[in-house]
Amino acid sequence: MDLIIIAALSENFVIGKNGKIPWYILEDLQRFRKLTLGNRVIMGRKTYESLPEKFRPLPRRENIVLTTNPYYSYSKVIVMHSIDGTLEYCRNGDKVKENFVIGGEKIFRAFFPYATKMELTHVHRQYEGDAFFPDINWNEWQEVMREDKRNKNCEYSFVSYVRRE
């Protein structure tokens, strides 16, 4: 089972501020959609609630929301209460092509030991924020693809990684 971390992060590892992404890069959103369509997305409750209502749940994807609140429920999503339970579900649940962990900070940290791939957008600027991508050992990851991009606001790179054996 592949478990893929997908995120956009700034040079100072910011991924969010006040429940929002601090930049707008249309091509990054399009890439996220293309990669995750038809697959499973795993997120925390705060990430789920930060999505615009018209995109909740993310369409044409199996949405898993992880929360410690035993009373939490939303229609059309699978609510899980533990990392182990989520991993077990992904191994044995309905077969989908890939499992994407989409955030936030706590969820990235919890799933990092199990991740086999990463699809990252490196935003080549520093931003203020209150949610950060985990500090990881980059020596454990091998870059397998990079596309350097630029729009009117910033430079960024789409980078794919696989965990080294």
Could you characterize the architecture of this molecule?
- By secondary structure, this protein is α/β, with parallel strands linked by helices.
- The protein has one domain (3-98, 105-138): Dihydrofolate Reductase, subunit A (3-Layer(aba) Sandwich).
- β9 and β10 (155-163) form a beta hairpin.
- It has helices at residues 26-36, 45-50, 83-92, 105-111; strands at residues 3-10, 14-16, 40-44, 62-66, 78-80, 99-103, 117-123, 131-132, 141-150, 155-163.
- Strands 5-4-3-6-1-7-10-9 form an eight-stranded mixed beta sheet, with helices on both faces. It has a two-stranded antiparallel sheet with strand order 2-8.
- The model has no long low-confidence stretch (mean pLDDT 95).
Question: Outline of this structure?
Answer:
With 165 residues, the chain is α/β, with parallel strands linked by helices. It is 21% helix and 35% strand.
Topology:
Blueprint: E1 3-10, E2 14-16, H1 26-36, E3 40-44, H2 45-50, E4 62-66, E5 78-80, H3 83-92, E6 99-103, H4 105-111, E7 117-123, E8 131-132, E9 141-150, E10 155-163
Parallel strand pairs: 1-6, 1-7, 3-4, 3-6, 4-5
Antiparallel strand pairs: 2-8, 7-10, 9-10
Count of structural domains:
1
The CATH superfamily appears as Dihydrofolate Reductase, subunit A
Shape: globular
Q: Roughly how much helix do the residues carry, as a percent range? A: 10-25%
The run of helices and strands is EEHEHEEHEHEEEE
Number of strands: 10
Q: Note the total helix count.
A: 4
Q: Main sheet: which strands, in order across?
A: 5-4-3-6-1-7-10-9
Mean pLDDT score? 95
Please give the radius of gyration in angstroms: 15 Å
Counting helices, strands and paired strands, the structural category is alpha/beta
Q: Which spans have pLDDT < 50 for at least 5 consecutive residues?
A: none
End-to-end CA span: 15 Å
CATH class: Alpha Beta
Please summarize the sheet with the most strands.
8 strands, mixed
